[in-house]
């Protein structure tokens, strides 16, 4: 008798969800990619599925038959404090009923202001902002559910994303198109401070690895992240590769720019400390435990510029 491979359900089809679905297929897993529409570009080997995982019914339908569930869902920035707890409740309940393991894509927000200290998995959770406290409360509930034996849970924390398909990041849609077309390039805060970025393919590899290794359960892991460099150094890499000088526009305080409108920046203002103090992520724990290696920033920038170049070319056809 042939036993079918275990289904992996990825909730959320943003850059992380799409990259993770592709990585899981590459590793030989059947994959269901879930969002509210069930549409989007076809990914070979991936079943697209429509469900609203903010509801118990939608979450149960989304994870039906899955052995591992990956929570990569995000919502509009101004809706996060209200909506993310509802999604957590629905997804936790559905994964518990299905008997599935739950892998959660997480942020650095629970740490709050670190005053430049290197962030490890043992760093204290000192968030004081609305969104930081909300994320810390969600994470405490995830870990409590694991301790209580309701289901197996593991959290993978990422720094700001960079990479193909990443638009809504401070190193995304506001930077690369402008760099490629000679437009002003915005840079937030103090650009001479180190700032970690996690390559989107490393986000995918880290989450997929946590999904495959039950021995990692019950804790937070930092996803593979290249050593931090200053924003100025990262933009110098972009400048070198585009062979044109970047006209930097430094944004010293939260105000609208590029794809980030007034509503977004009003919500982001409380998180702007991330650009006025060093943001340094240490991901050595997951790298040593599972033999992972973070992609060098040079390679990440090359891949990102190539993707944006193709995107711009396609828009001009």
Task: Provide a concise account of the structure shown.
Helix content is 38%, strand content 17%. It is of the alpha/beta class.
Structure, described:
With 317 residues, the chain is of the alpha/beta class. The chain has two domains: 7-160 and 198-222, Rossmann fold, CATH 3.40.50.720; 163-196 and 227-279 and 296-315, UDP-galactose 4-epimerase, domain 1 (Alpha-Beta Complex), CATH 3.90.25. It has ten helices and 13 strands. The chain has helices at 15-26, 56-63, 80-98, 130-147, 176-181, 200-212, 231-242, 262-268, 284-290, 297-315, and strands at 7-11, 31-35, 46-50, 66-71, 101-106, 153-157, 160-162, 185-188, 194-195, 197-199, 220-222, 229-230, 248-251. The strands form four sheets. Strands 3-2-1-4-5-6-11 form a seven-stranded parallel sheet, with helices on both faces. The chain has a two-stranded parallel ribbon with strand order 7-10. The protein starts with 6 loop residues before the first strand and ends with a helix.
């Amino acid at each position: 008798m042939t036993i079918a491979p275990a289904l992996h359900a990825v909730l959320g089809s943003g850059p992380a969800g799409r990259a993770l679905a592709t990585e899981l297929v590459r590793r030989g897993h059947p994959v269901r990619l879930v969002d509210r529409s069930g549409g989007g570009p076809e990914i070979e080997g991936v079943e697209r599925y429509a469900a609203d995982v903010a509801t118990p019914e939608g979450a149960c339908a989304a994870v039906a038959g899955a052995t591992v569930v990956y929570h990569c869902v995000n919502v509009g920035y101004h809706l996060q404090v209200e909506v993310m707890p509802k999604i957590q409740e629905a997804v936790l309940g559905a994964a518990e009923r299905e008997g599935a393991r739950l892998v959660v894509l997480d942020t650095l927000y629970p740490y709050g202001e670190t005053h430049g200290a290197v962030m490890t998995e043992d760093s204290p959770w000192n968030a004081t902002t609305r969104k930081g406290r909300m994320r810390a409360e969600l994470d405490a509930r995830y870990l409590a559910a694991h301790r209580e034996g309701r289901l197996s849970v593991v959290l993978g924390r990422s720094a700001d994303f960079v990479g193909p398909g990443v638009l809504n990041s401070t190193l995304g849609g506001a930077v690369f198109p402008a760099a490629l077309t000679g437009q002003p390039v915005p840079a937030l805060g103090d650009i001479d401070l180190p700032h970690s970025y996690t390559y989107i393919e490393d986000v995918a590899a880290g989450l997929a690895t946590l999904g495959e290794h039950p021995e990692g359960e019950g804790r937070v892991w930092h996803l593979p992240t290249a050593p931090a460099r200053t924003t100025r150094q990262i933009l110098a890499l972009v400048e070198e590769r585009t062979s044109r000088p970047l006209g930097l526009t430094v944004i010293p305080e939260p105000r609208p720019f590029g794809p980030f409108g007034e509503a977004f920046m009003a919500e982001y203002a409380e998180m702007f400390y991330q650009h006025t103090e060093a943001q340094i992520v240490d991901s050595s724990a997951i790298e040593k435990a599972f033999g992972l290696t973070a992609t060098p920033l040079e390679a990440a920038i090359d891949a990102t510029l190539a993707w944006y170049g193709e995107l711009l070319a396609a828009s001009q056809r």
